[in-house]
Amino acid sequence: MRVGFIGLGSQGGPMARRIVEAGHPTTLWARRPETLAAFADTDATVAQSPAELAAASDLVCLCVVGDADVTQVVEGAEGVLSGSAGGGVIAVHSTIHPDTCREIAKIAAEKGVQVIDAPVSGGGHAAAEGRLLVMVGGETDTVERCRPVFDSYAGRVVHLGDLGAGQVAKLLNNLLFTANLATAASTFTLGRELGIDPQRLGEFLSEGTANSFALSTIAPLGGSLEILAAHASGLLRKDVGLIGDLADRASAGRGAVVTAAETTLELMESLR
After folding, report:
1. Domains of the chain, start order
2. Catalytic residues
């Protein structure tokens, strides 16, 4: 497939490079031209607009930050849909509200373009090493058509159901990660008060049954959330808010996991 990629940040950049290196003809676009400098040594081509990128692509991958960014890149002037031909696919790798994906899909369908949601988990290092987890929602035939591209940067691609299912799964993943940060950080605090060195405690817990991705994230920091708060609290607040909205709309109980996640966010925001 001819692939277009928009969103060349810390995670999207390595994803795009893996796609290029897998041999897929790839076109890139970025708001900031300096972002494209990292691809000067590849066979990727550069478009002057999202519309131009879409015209040269069978599959357009989006890895921008939030709902407004996705909507602007797809529907805005010189956006992806203005250059898309019938039969194309848009894959939303961004973590956004599933309803945003559904709304875009309705507009895209008028041009014969299909939309799937394919948020990813693992971060930039996992993307560079080809071991991201990809959570996909959409029609089976479309997902399978795109799978060879996803396989270039993924360790596993999981098709979870209809459009929006990938976003719900990713938001649940981020909710649990956020909640786990609170319990991990409080464990380090308690350990410190009981006279256990945080670094030694981190070494032990990381090898034991209590280990988690959240714990392994803050263990090298002595159990502190301070550095993570500076870089990730805004994104985690966004994702917890989105899953809370989905729960409220479905009249589903938020449960202990949301309470724990909100505790984490309060702790992070107090450190900023």
Report:
1. 3-162 (3.40.50.720), 168-271 (1.10.1040.10)
2. 170
